[in-house]
């Protein structure tokens, strides 16, 4: 024990909670990927020293409360309208760093029009897209991104593609639009993936500062409560089932 | 050559006991406690402190960012 105490000294500190994160406890379920992505955004903001000039656009969904967790300026958009609000904020204050933070029900369902047109116009914003294949906050209903055969509260026998269609790969669609400069799909279920996601977020914010157009960072994530699994089991299930359909990596990088 | 020695400090009250840190620890240092914290979660703790190499995997993946990581250079704590 004395050895541990000799290690725990300020000069040996290599990782601590960034001060861009507020002191509030996150309202997310244990093991939820939202927390990890929040932390990565906070760390990127700290490293780029843009805390005073960053404005986040919170979505509707579990992360509607994001303004409680990051010590930056926030706006809260109506469901799916975060890219439209981000457009307005960025056009009015082009010197600010603006990002939207959205889930799959927000970005790929009710907000599809706003998403596609913001990307098509090449708005100079960062869009962060958390894809867990389900409507987490409202009780685990089927989303456009729910996998074929995957059970949800509104399709307890699993998604039937003859009835509900195939899951939408919105990032691949957005990558075809000329306005997007960077479209990537990442995850935060292992330490290596967390590091890659952080690099992707940093690149997205740098693209914005270079006026390159819209950057979209999709993070394939879990929903332990909605999937009715333990956090560890949910991450394994995600690896086995989500990644074959939503492969990780850069889809477009210019 | 001796490995670097590490140590973590878990903010017990903030931990939600998700256990994700236990899966990314390369030396199996972390386990969930039998006791619970104020929220009723089995919090993470260093069950095998001697094995910690201070890689910080647990710290960067923790969704609630409640792990602080320290690392001393090999031999510095002898």
Give the rounded overall mean pLDDT of chain A. 96
> What percentage of residues of chain A falls in helices of 4 or more residues?
25-40%
Q: Give the helices and strands of chain B as they follow along the chain.
A: EHEEHE
Our count of helices of chain A gives 10
Q: Radius of gyration of chain A over alpha carbons?
A: 18 Å
Judging by the overall fold, what is the CATH architecture of chain B?
2-Layer Sandwich
Q: Which CATH architecture of chain A is right? A: 3-Layer(aba) Sandwich
Largest sheet of chain B: 2 strands, antiparallel
Low-confidence segments of chain B: none
Q: Beta fraction of the residues of chain B? A: 15-25%
Count of DSSP-assigned helices of chain B: 2
Beta percentage of chain A is 15-25%
Q: Would you list the SSEs of chain A in sequence order as H and E?
A: HEHEEHEHHEEEHHEHEHHE
Strand order of the largest sheet of chain A: 3-2-4-5-9-8-10
| CATH topology label of chain A | Rossmann fold
CATH C-level category of chain A: Alpha Beta
The number of strands of chain A is 10
Identify the strand order in the major beta sheet of chain B.
1-4
Name the average pLDDT of chain B: 92
Global structural class of chain B: alpha+beta
Domain Thiamine pyrophosphate enzyme TPP-binding (chain A): 70-219
InterPro entries (chain A): 2-oxoacid:Fd_oxidoreductase, THDP-binding, TPP_enzyme_TPP-bd
Keywords (chain A): Oxidoreductase
Protein name (chain A): 2-oxoglutarate oxidoreductase
């Amino acid at each position: 024990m004395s050895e541990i105490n000799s290690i725990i000294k300020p000069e040996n500190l290599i990782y601590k909670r960034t001060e861009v994160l507020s002191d509030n406890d996150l309202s997310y379920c244990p093991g939820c990927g939202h927390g990890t992505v929040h932390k990565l955004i906070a760390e990127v903001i700290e490293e780029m020293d843009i805390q005073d000039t960053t404005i986040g656009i919170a979505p509707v969904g579990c992360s509607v409360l994001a303004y409680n967790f990051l010590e930056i300026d926030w706006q809260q958009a109506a469901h799916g309208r975060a890219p439209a609000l981000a457009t307005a904020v960025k056009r009015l204050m082009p010197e600010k760093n603006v990002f939207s933070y959205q889930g799959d029900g927000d970005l790929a369902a009710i907000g599809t029009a706003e998403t596609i047109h913001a990307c098509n116009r090449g708005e100079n914003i960062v869009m962060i897209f958390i894809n867990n294949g389900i409507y987490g906050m409202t009780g685990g209903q089927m989303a456009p991104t729910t996998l074929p055969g995957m059970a949800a509260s509104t399709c307890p026998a699993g998604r039937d593609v003859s009835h509900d269609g195939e899951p939408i790969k919105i990032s691949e669609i957005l990558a075809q639009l000329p306005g997007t400069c960077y479209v990537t799909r990442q995850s935060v279920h292992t330490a290596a993936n967390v590091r890659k996601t952080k690099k992707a977020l940093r690149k997205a914010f740098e693209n914005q500062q270079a006026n390159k157009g819209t950057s979209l960072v999709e993070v394939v994530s879990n929903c332990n409560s909605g999937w009715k699994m333990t956090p560890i089991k949910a991450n394994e299930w995600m690896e086995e089932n989500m990644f074959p359909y939503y492969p990780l990596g850069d889809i477009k990088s210019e | 050559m001796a490995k670097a020695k590490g140590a973590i400090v878990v903010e017990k009250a903030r931990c939600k006991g998700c256990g994700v840190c236990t899966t990314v620890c390369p030396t199996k240092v972390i386990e969930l406690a039998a006791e619970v914290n104020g929220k009723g979660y089995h919090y993470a703790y260093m069950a095998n402190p001697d094995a910690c190499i201070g890689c910080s995997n647990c710290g960067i993946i923790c969704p609630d960012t409640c792990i602080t990581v320290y690392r001393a250079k090999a031999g510095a704590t002898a």
